[in-house]
Amino acid sequence: MALQEELKTQGDFLFKNRSYLPLIILVIGLLVFINTEYYEIETPDTWFSESFEYICLAVSLLGLCIRVITVARTPKNTSGRNTKDGQLAEELNTTGIYSVVRHPLYLGNFFMWLGVAMLTENAWFSIAFIFFYAFYYERIMYAEENFLRTKFGSSYLNWAEKVPAFIPSFKNYEKPKYPFSIKKVLKKEKNGLVAVFLLFWIFDMVGDFVEEKTIYFEPTFWFYGAMISGIIYLILKIMKKRKLLDESNR
Questions:
Q1: Does residue 174 sit in helix, strand or coil?
Q2: Cα–Cα distance between 59 and 132 in angstroms, integer?
Q3: Cβ proximity of 120 and 62 under 8 Å
């Protein structure tokens, strides 16, 4: 198989399973975190060490914000939504954040997962994650762009010539075509918020277990964050099921 076809085949497979395969990295990250905590050398606390988890949270929330900005101004059936039959795009997004970077959702995903990777407190794992992400999403982006190029032809090529794939550039910024849709954000991005706080709570509990050698419950900031975001998720899930978040062409 020629390299071009091989990259497309790999990309199509990873695209369809992009929500699940990163969980493997999460499991590896937890194991690295346990090892780091177990063999941790005690050092004096500093403002950085005491604030490190919140710095990681800020990185993850930055990624979530990028996703929110992206999803809020896109029409129906775009922005990487796939079906059982493959990719789907009824319109080419070229304005707003899409005039700054071609794959803003994947940029958002990068920061969301980077914040979690940083929680391991292992610099080598964080670096390995960055290289893995580049390898993993390069193939997904290749498959997606191959699909868009086939469907939209010269319109896609003209847009891609001006807008970078992953590192944002604001020199060709265009005002968004569609207004900000809070309903679409609540409908599509409810998973992200609860996932972030749930993962941070899991890391917090695992760290306490490794240090104390026993399982005990203590209501922390991360517990309350996971609980509140979980309640919000359930409410939005019910609203979505009852079609209270539906909008025409959004």
A1: strand
A2: 18
A3: no
Q: What is the DSSP letter of 52?
A: H
| Amino acid letter, 212 | E
Radius of gyration of the chain (CA): 20
3-state class of 184 per DSSP? helix
Residue 110 CA neighbour count, 13 Å, CB half:
17
Regions of the chain short of the pLDDT cut 70:
1-8, 10-12, 14, 17-19, 21, 38-49, 77-90, 250
> Coil, strand, or helix at residue 78?
coil
SS3 82: strand
Q: How far apart are the two ends of the chain, measured CA to CA in Å? A: 39
**pLDDT tens digits, one per residue of 137-192:** 888 888 888 888 888 889 999 999 999 999 999 998 999 988 999 999 999 899 99
> Could you give the CA distance from residue 8 to residue 126 in angstroms, rounded to a whole number?
27
Residue 70 burial (CB count, 10 A): 25
Q: 163: phi > 0 → left, psi -120 to 50 → alpha, else beta; which?
A: beta
Helix intervals (H) in the chain = 3-16, 22-38, 47-71, 104-118, 123-152, 154-162, 182-188, 190-212, 221-241
Q: How many residues would you count in the chain?
A: 250
